Amino acid sequence: MKITANMKILVVEDDLDTRNLIKTLLRKQGFKNIHSVVDGVEGLDFLEKAFIEDSPVKLILADWNMPKLDGISFLNHLKNSIDFKGIPFVMVTADNDRQHVVEAINSGVSEYLIKPIKPEILVEKMVSAVKKAS
Question: Which residues are within 8 A (CB) of 29 and not within 5 positions of it... i.e. 6 or more apart?
């Protein structure tokens, strides 16, 4: 799989300003098929619906700290799903604690991006995540 402008990207972020910032950065980088939800529960619902509609998500950008279902728990649900375990997953978080980074990697994140978000680093992490999933 390669990064393309039309690939379906799901942003899972509870903070409205950050969610809008990520979507704006992605649009400025040429991505057109960007969707967002506020937590992991909505993320799972969105993934199911997209899969049923035969329009699956190709990349997930998710925050760690969210209500209802945090980023790691969301990722663990995906890893236990035949349909979703192969989706590239970039953890986007303000948490740069080494222990959390190791936990995220051990949980199976494709890439780990620490806020504040720089557009060039965001795209670099996305490309890397997609390559790792191929």
Answer: 119, 122, 123
Query: Do residues 1 and 51 make contact, with C-beta atoms less than 8 angstroms apart?
Result: no
Dihedral sign from CA coordinates of 24, 56, 133, 42: positive
Task: Please report where in the chains the tokens 């998710």 appear, as a residue.
Answer: 62
In CATH terms, the superfamily for domain 9-133 is Response regulator (3.40.50.2300)
Q: Which residue has the tokens 């994140």?
A: 109
Classify residue 80 by burial, with Cβ atoms within 10 Å: 0-12, 13-18, 19+: exposed
**Helix axes 98-107 and 71-79, enclosed angle (nearest 10):** 20
Q: How far apart are CA 25 and CA 30, in angstroms?
A: 9
Q: Give Cα 123 distance to the centre of its chain.
A: 12
pLDDT in tens, 27-76: 999 999 999 999 999 999 999 999 999 999 999 999 999 989 999 999 99
DSSP letter at 96?
A: -
Global confidence as pTM? 0.95
Per-domain boundaries in the chain: 9-133
